[in-house]
Amino acid sequence: MKEKMSKGKKLFLIIWVALILVILALILILGLPPKETESIKEVMKDGVLHDLNKMNFFGLSVNPAVISAYLVTAGLLLLAVLIRVFAIPKFKDVPGKFQSVIEKLVEFFWDMAKGNSHHRTNFIAAYIFSAGVYIFFSTIFELFGVQWMTAAGHSMALPAPIADINAAIAMGFTTFGMILVSGIVANGPKGGLRVMKDFSLPISMSFRLFGALLSGLLVTELVYYSVKLSFVLPVVVGVLFTLLHAIIQTYVLATLASVFYGEAVEPPKPKKEKKKK
Questions:
Q1: How many angstroms separate the Cα of 246 from the Cα of each of 131, 173, 201, 211, 214?
Q2: How far from each other are the two terminal CA atoms of the chain, in whole angstroms?
Q3: Which phi and psi (to 5°) does residue 55 adopt?
Q4: Higher model confidence: residue 233 or residue 19?
Q5: CB-side exposure of 264: number of CA atoms within 13 Å?
Q6: Which pTM does this prediction carry?
Q7: CA distance 37 to 147
């Protein structure tokens, strides 16, 4: 049995090495890629600001991330409807594989909400579940390489929505607004003032989310830009960085949102009466 496994591994290694050699041979035969038409500075600047590759959206010139955000949102809403209509009614006491995945996902965010907020848990559990799923799929969206026409008339792959600074700021301020309103609803003006003390929260959330995703984008751009590193390696780097950031940023934002929400909605502690002498 072990000999068969070792033979299988050797065969797989031989095929893998042969595939690499074929790719290198094709590169040498066809020639190296043409020289870059953009400097590395322009490439990295466009990766942040999207100045060069604007897209036409109902007569408006928008960043590519806007189109990405609408596609991700529409895809998630459609997926949610399909699961609710076709999958959830068929759930059983003994779960199958798909039901187990859904239950584990819901249980993960519920435990996080329950552990960080002991009051009004249902709302924050639903919020961090929605925000976490959106951040995860918004991050890995760029791996699908969805092509779209720019305003200039050429095709390009749509970037991750969260890689745009505007999307990161919107997510940070939306989360802060949710915490602020929840604090006011739970504890009145005092709850709002308690939240306002952390006025830097939306800024830190926004730039933490944007900075982490942007670092992966820029590293991938640097690897693609270098001719010596632009074969095979970008696939590994891009996938690893994207998946790593998707998981980490989902966890970080869900944790921070639930922790600050728990502090905002926590009832004030009753003042101890002074003992009479």
A1: 12, 20, 21, 13, 12
A2: 86
A3: -125, 150
A4: 19
A5: 30
A6: 0.77
A7: 21
